[in-house]
UniProtKB/TrEMBL annotation:
Its cofactor is Zn(2+). This is Peptidase M50. It comes from Streptomyces termitum. Keywords: Hydrolase, Membrane, Metalloprotease, Protease, Transmembrane, Transmembrane helix, Zinc. GO terms for biological process: proteolysis. The chain crosses the membrane at residues 245-266, 278-297, 346-370.
Length: 371
């Protein structure tokens, strides 16, 4: 006689799964009525979303715990029993996505087809290996990224902002004289285009410095404009809040840093110098470009930074969805936690105020320049 094989149920309960090495989790993110986390495959880079209960279990899969080990801590944390069916579904999901030790890698995700390029709009990669290109840039610039260098540069940017605030009137007055200097205007436009290009590369170098990976560097055009873009694949999985804020803000920081020499020139130019209109226009428009990117509205860098500071995902779309539901009364949004019921209306009001301030500020600036 042969010994009876264990029942499927007993085998499932005894199984001690281990998460494969290199799997990465995002921080907890508020998304609508739920708190979610993203899980990223270490090889394919594909990511998917799970709730807090699933993350609680997945993060404890180290090869030493089975269902009977995890059920008591799960019940203590969430006040409900961890059923065998839930456990089996979770392991099946992780196995098919190749996230368990020994599971085969799934097929890489198929990207959604991009709209076809036209003469008027489109995008095109500019380098064969964006990761290698960014790595070379990072190696060349790494000495400048040390704190001993960056602290004085940050102080210089702050001094520039103080100068711009103190000299706003003279700067606007001098920049108004550019209306009759087309060559100077063309020079400023060229500098701003270069600044935007450097802005995108700064995101990539900062991401590489903090362990991120750049997947694409290319050219995006919306005629009459054409700009460089840089895609950081694993931005949400960078370690720590500070790294995410640095990567998101690196472009605007570099835009302002490029203006520092012109701020010095402005302070040294005598009253009535022929170069003052050019320098004033460059400082004003460059500051608007740099600081404008920090406004927390999509798709600007400030929007990404605010989302990380608040611990939210898809803040603007979820705000719209909440407000649409809220029209149906309080009962329609009862599933939202108290934090979401405060945050989404507050962001909506702040966004409207920012748009009004931007429109009013633009109108006033144009009036002063043209006067």
């Amino acid at each position: 006689m042969t010994a009876a094989s264990p029942s499927p149920s007993a085998a499932v309960r005894a199984y001690r799964p281990a998460l494969r090495e290199g799997v990465r989790f995002s921080p907890a993110l508020l998304r609508g009525p739920r708190t979610v986390r993203l899980i990223r495959h270490p090889v394919t880079g594909s990511a998917f979303e799970v709730g807090e209960k699933e993350h609680f279990l997945i993060s404890r899969l180290d090869g030493t715990r089975n269902l009977d080990d995890l059920a008591p801590v799960y019940a203590e944390r969430f006040g409900r029993r961890l059923g065998e069916e839930h456990w089996t579904r979770l392991l099946g999901l992780l196995g098919t996505r190749g996230l368990l030790e020994g599971a085969p890698d799934p097929a890489p995700p198929v990207p959604e087809p991009a709209p076809p390029n036209t003469f008027w709009r489109g995008s095109r990669p500019m380098v064969r290996d964006a990761g290698a290109t960014t790595a070379r840039l990072h190696r060349a610039l790494r000495p400048l990224l040390r704190p001993v260098v960056q602290l004085p540069l940050c102080a210089a940017v702050l001094a520039l902002l103080v100068l711009l605030a103190a000299e706003a009137g003279p700067l606007i007055g001098a920049a108004g004289e550019l209306t009759g200097q087309p060559a100077a205007v063309a020079g400023i436009a060229l500098f701003l285009w270069f600044s935007i290009t450097a802005h995108e590369l700064a995101h990539g170098v900062a991401a590489r410095h903090h362990g991120g990976h750049v997947t694409e560097i290319g050219l995006k055009w919306r005629l009459p404009g054409a700009l460089l873009y840089c895609t950081v694949e694993d931005y949400l999985f960078l370690p720590g809040l500070r790294a995410k804020l640095v990567v998101a803000g690196a472009g605007a920081y570099l835009n302002l840093l490029l203006l520092v020499p012109f701020g010095v020139v402005w302070t040294l130019l005598p009253e009535g110098a022929a170069e003052r209109p050019f320098v004033a226009g460059l400082l004003l428009l460059g500051a608007i470009q740099g600081l404008g990117n920090l406004v927390p509205l999509p798709p600007l860098d400030g929007y990404r930074m605010l989302g990380q500071l608040l611990g939210t995902a898809r803040l603007a779309p979820e705000t719209r969805a909440y407000l649409a539901l809220r029209r149906g009364g309080r009962a329609a949004v009862a599933a939202y936690p108290a934090r979401a019921r405060r945050l989404y209306p507050a962001y909506a009001a702040a966004a409207v105020l920012l748009v009004l301030l931007a429109a009013g500020g633009t109108a006033v600036l144009l009036f002063l320049l043209l006067r």
